[in-house]
Amino acid sequence: GGNRVPAAWYRRPSYYKGNPATILAPGEVVPWPAYSDALDYELEFACVLLSGGRDLDPESALEAIAGYSVFCDFSARDLQREEMEVRLGPAKSKDFASGLGPWLVTADEVEDPATLTVVAYVNGLEVARGRLGEARWSFAEMVSYASGAEPLAAGEVFASGT
């Protein structure tokens, strides 16, 4: 069917780079883009880099992670459907807002990142919950892959995707 996960998803981590100027703090109102009638959210994990690098192996990538946080990826689903038809990935449907925080759990406080859990609330009601160990790719693998032939910098944020 049309809902099958593509084989490429299993071969390499996928991600997109969002607009850091549109990061919202917890409790901020998400701006509803005038070009959309279908706003949605995706609960994700985030890692923040303590150091940068290029062509990092997964072990070095793990050492480059400062810590972990909660990330909320907001999407204009109606526009996203159109953008995905072009096969270049989401663009304006994702660039208007993302939520991050409020805390950063430092990497040295986390024995096993796979045990971390995130919870999303909308108007005080729990609407989503996830555990990092359920993700297909670890942050070490994602950061390693992203650093291939591309320099990464301290302070960059990676989100786990859904």
From TrEMBL:
InterPro entries: Fumarylacetoacetase-like_C (IPR011234), Fumarylacetoacetase_C_sf (IPR036663). The keyword Acetylation does not apply. Coiled coil: none annotated. Keywords: Hydrolase. One of its GO terms (molecular function) is hydrolase activity. SUPFAM superfamilies: FAH. It holds the Pfam family FAA_hydrolase. Residues 5-162 form the Fumarylacetoacetase-like C-terminal domain. This is Fumarylacetoacetate (FAA) hydrolase. It comes from mine drainage metagenome. The lineage of its organism: unclassified sequences, metagenomes, ecological metagenomes.
